[in-house]
Design brief:
single chain, 128 residues, alpha/beta, Rossmann fold, five-stranded parallel sheet, 32% helix, 17% strand, globular
């Protein structure tokens, strides 16, 4: 299986742990999906939006990790806007089950998918 270059958008203040869990899960020997993480992990700089745009443009797809505070996460909203502007495929992934909230600028028909191996494989392979 070819590795997908994935930009993971997440609320750095609240959801770094779930983002790291997703990356870790992809590295397990029995994982049905494989990703190359293109996320921004360094401190936010003045030009972080330009940096995010470059990484999003060079990615195959974007995963938006949805947590309890994603609806107020300005960085996630900005990254999703860039993703939409660049017309990159993306999906929303529930990081906190039923407590997961969409970014404010998600489209009304954007579904938050449950975090299961089967869902991830289908979503990352573009089959959902």
């Amino acid at each position: 299986m070819a590795k997908k270059r994935v930009f993971i958008s997440f609320d750095y203040d609240h959801d770094l742990d779930i983002k790291n869990s997703l990356v870790g899960q992809s590295k397990l020997s029995d994982s049905p999906f494989d990703i190359s993480d293109m996320s921004i992990t360094e401190a936010v700089e003045q030009n972080w939006k330009e940096n995010a745009r470059k990484r999003i443009k060079s990615s195959d797809l974007v995963i938006v990790m949805c947590g309890k505070h994603t609806d107020t996460a300005k960085g996630v909203a900005a990254e999703l806007s860039i993703t939409q502007e660049e017309r990159k495929p993306y999906f929303l992934l529930a990081g906190h089950g039923s407590e997961s909230k969409k970014p404010v600028n998600a489209y009304s028909d954007d579904k938050i998918y449950n975090w299961t191996w089967d869902n991830l494989k289908l979503l990352i392979d573009g089959k959902r």
